[in-house]
Amino acid sequence: MTLIDGNHIAQQIREELTEQVATIKEKGGKIPHLAAILVGNNPASEAYVRNKVKDCEKIGYGSTLVRFDTDVTEEELLAKVEEINQNDDIDGLIVQLPLPDHIAPEKVTFTIRPEKDVDGFHPTNVGRMAKGLPAYIAATPFGILQLLERYKIETAGKHCVVIGRSDIVGTPMSILMSRKAYPGNCTVTICHSRTKNMPDMTRQADILIAAIGQAGFVTADMVKEGAVVIDVGINRVDDASRKSGYALVGDVNFEEVAEKCSFITPVPGGVGPMTRAGLLYNTMLAAKKKIYEF
Ligand code: GUN
Is 146 tagged catalytic? Predict the structure, then answer.
């Protein structure tokens, strides 16, 4: 069994991007610049955004953090998005989710220019991805593709079973794994809350991607011997032995499933670290104007 080391691969990607920044500087080109908008004081969102900005600084990107109080109006927020859309110095823009209830997240996401949508949430990017055109791929699907590729995991002709049909993980992952490319060329099945006999489905998986948000959902009896298991879940479970009072666990019961796998991602340290690398990667593509060349 090979443990897939997301921290190592994410670091590799950051080093590659740092080198690209140095090359851009040498040639007098455009240094990538990411803007992040944060509304309110949700502690998890604050931590995510702080880390995203810190990541940019570490690898030599420009970054701008725009903060609004929770009571910002939708109009004010959309006006800021429009302003950043028009700012040629800023290549990528993210608006951290969730937003307060009085702001429609779709309205905000749809207002970001697709060329700057480094989260890959805009329907234009989702549509381009589905059509196999160059597109910003959302951070988690990006991270999974990179892990499969960099561990040279064979995917063509394999049966990939995705558990979960969310907008930002399960659905795009199913599309990406069935596309005519590497990683891809899989026969894909999506399982969800209405799936009957889920273990019968998951046992057919050569590649099993669990993105359902339930701690330890995938047990050993659901996994075929030799399968590749990608665990997207990050769930808090009570753990009195820790100072924090909780531990982070995935959607896969790692202890019992790992023994059956050819490859498996741990939680933490698997898919999680890759998502921040994905945002940096997309921001570089944005600065180089690589996606919307036509
Ligand atoms: N909230 C949780 N994950 C994300 C993400 O990837 N992008 C944005 N914009 N908000 C999030």
Answer: no
CA–CA separation, 202 and 72 (whole Å): 45
Classify residue 130: in a domain, yes or no: no
Give catalytic status of residue 119 as yes or no.
yes
Give the Cα separation of 60 and 63 in Å (integer): 9
H helices within 136-179, ranges in order?
139-150, 170-178
CA 255 to chain CA mean position, Å: 25
CA of residue 95 to ligand 1 center, whole Å: 8
Q: CA–CA separation, 279 vs 43, rounded Å?
A: 20
Distance CA 59, CA 180 (A): 33
Using one digit for the tens of pLDDT, what is the confidence trace for 240-273? 999 999 999 999 999 999 999 999 999 999 999 9
The model's pLDDT over 84-123, given as tens digits with 9 standing for 90+, comes to 999 999 999 999 999 999 999 999 999 999 999 999 999 9
Q: In sequence order, what are the residues at sequence separation of 6 or more whose Cβ sits closer than 8 angstroms to the Cβ of residue 125?
A: 114, 117, 135, 136, 137
pTM of the model: 0.97
The CB of 94 under 6 Å from ligand 1? The reply is yes
For residue 294, the model assigns a pLDDT of 62
Annotated active-site residue 52? The verdict is yes
Domain that holds residue 258: 139-271
- Whether 227 maps to a domain, the answer reads yes
CATH code of the domain containing 84: 3.40.50.10860
Tell me, using a 6 A CB cutoff, whether residue 139 lines ligand 1.
Answer: yes
Which ligand 1 atom lies nearest to the CA of residue 45? 1
